C-alpha cells in the first residue's frame, strides 16, 4: 500500500470517535496495522482502550463506514487484538492534551 493511500485511510479513521473518551481512534493509538490485499480487502488490526468494551461493535461498524468511500477498498475486516496491550503511551500529544493526560 502506498503512503498516499495509507494517509487517506488514517485520515478517514480519524473521523471515528471513541464514544467513551470523545477522541478519535487514530490519536488514541488504537490502530496497530493496516493490510490491504490485492483483491481490495483491508484488514484493520486495532485494539480498544479496555477489554470487554461494551461499544466495540459500534466502533467496528464506524471503522467500516469511515472506509466505505475509499475506492481502493472493496471490503474492510476489523481484527480486534489485545496484544500488545493499549496504554496511554500510545496516545498522540493531541489526545493527551484533550484528555488531560500527563
From TrEMBL:
GO terms for molecular function: methyltransferase activity. One of its GO terms (biological process) is methylation. The keyword Methyltransferase applies. Residues 6-79 form the MIP18 family-like domain. Gene3D superfamilies: Fe-S cluster assembly (FSCA). It holds the Pfam family FeS_assembly_P. Keywords: Methyltransferase, Transferase. InterPro entries: Fe-S_Maturation_MIP18, FSCA_dom_sf, MIP18-like. PANTHER family: FE-S PROTEIN MATURATION AUXILIARY FACTOR YITW. This is DNA methyltransferase.
